[in-house]
Design brief:
Number of helices: 8
Oligomer: single chain
Order of helices and strands: HEEEEEHHHHHHH
Structural class: mainly alpha
Radius of gyration: 24 Å
Distance between the termini: 31 Å
Number of strands: 5
Strand order of the largest sheet: 2-3-5
Strand content: under 5%
Helix content: 55-70%
């Protein structure tokens, strides 16, 4: 069991990144309210694919909790029943958590897939939790950390419900994203702790610079979330097709986010230079530089080429991958420090 723990943790980590990708696609396509209720979608475990499935029909059987759209409102069946010739309001209650009552099959299925990936993530996370108890005598922190990561996943699911119930309130979307990053960091920590020590050299200055660089990347992601919120408002004003207008009169967060990317690049380039010059052995630094360059490239594409297809989710996912690699390097440096002390 202990031997397979790290493997299952890696599968969970990949699925976390898939959840981030799915969430980014949901936001890019404006599909956040594709399923206006939670955890079901229009009261179904398998969402509808045609508007006719959400229209009231005579002589039709409905299940308790099933949702239909009537006069631009969501109506929820209060019990199992079969309709007569006329609509009877007593069999229904209006959905009151928000007033959104629009069906778009593409948005519905995009949001549904986003939720489905999260459900699939729960499977290896549960398996990880069971496997972690084999570590308890040897390393209690692995067991405790795994249980906590499962709790964070549950909190992430609940937060997803709050995002829908509040009709995509920006603060809730941001919290949802940050919690996904917390889960990512927890899994990386567990993967590293359960693995074998690598032959890295410790350098206190590089260790501190890695921490600074990681915090800066996290700050850039938070700023990027704020820029995305501004773009969402611009889309509401100018529409989906007016991409050239999305960055008109941008917020201060955009200018800080764009300008700071230059400092991020210089900082990481300096860290890479020192790592290779001192022969410290941190080979993942090359991935940091590649991911950073790719992230900056997608940012430039959005700014100067009017948001090419998929550039938005790619920009976010690349930044999250970058953050993950940087955080893992901090863990490697800490293990190198502990190894140096025991020599």
């Amino acid at each position: 069991m202990k031997e397979n723990f790290q493997r299952v943790a890696k599968i969970s980590l990949v699925l976390v990144y898939l959840v981030i990708i799915a969430g980014a696609v949901v936001r890019m396509t404006g599909s956040g309210m594709g399923c206006p209720d939670w955890p079901k979608c229009f009261g179904h475990y398998i969402p509808p694919s045609d508007i006719s499935e959400l229209q009231w029909q005579p002589d039709h059987s409905y299940k308790e909790g099933q949702v239909i759209i009537v006069d631009k409102t969501l109506q929820v069946a209060q019990k199992d029943f079969k309709t007569a010739a006329d609509f009877n309001k007593e069999n229904w209650r209006e959905y009151t958590k928000h007033k959104y009552a629009i069906f778009n099959p593409w948005h519905t299925w995009i949001e549904y897939i986003n939720r489905l990936v999260t459900v699939i993530l729960g499977i290896p996370m549960l398996l990880m939790t069971l496997m972690s108890f084999w570590w308890y005598k040897e390393d209690k922190i692995i067991t405790i950390g795994t249980v906590l990561s499962l709790i964070v996943l549950g909190a992430q699911a609940v937060l997803g419900k709050i995002v829908v119930d509040t009709h995509l309130k920006p603060l809730m979307i941001s919290a949802h994203m940050v919690l996904a990053l917390v889960l990512m960091a927890m899994l990386l920590y567990l993967i590293h702790r359960a693995g074998k020590a690598q032959p890295f050299k410790f350098n206190n200055t590089i260790h501190r610079l890695l921490i600074v660089a990681t915090l800066v990347t996290f700050g850039q992601i938070v700023l990027g979330i704020q820029v995305r919120q501004f773009i969402d408002l611009q889309i509401d004003v100018f529409g989906d097709d007016a991409k050239s207008a999305w960055l008109q009169n941008p917020s201060i967060a955009f200018y800080v986010h764009r300008s700071f990317s230059i400092l991020v690049l210089l900082l990481n380039a300096f860290i890479a230079y020192r790592i290779y010059n001192l022969n410290l052995g941190y080979t993942k630094m090359k991935w940091v530089l590649l991911l950073l360059a790719a992230s900056i490239f997608t940012g430039i594409a959005m700014n100067y080429f009017n948001f090419p297809f998929a550039s938005q989710p790619m920009h976010l996912v690349l930044a999250c991958l970058l953050l993950g690699v940087q955080f893992y390097m901090i863990l490697e440096a800490l293990k190198a420090k502990r190894s140096a002390k025991t020599l």
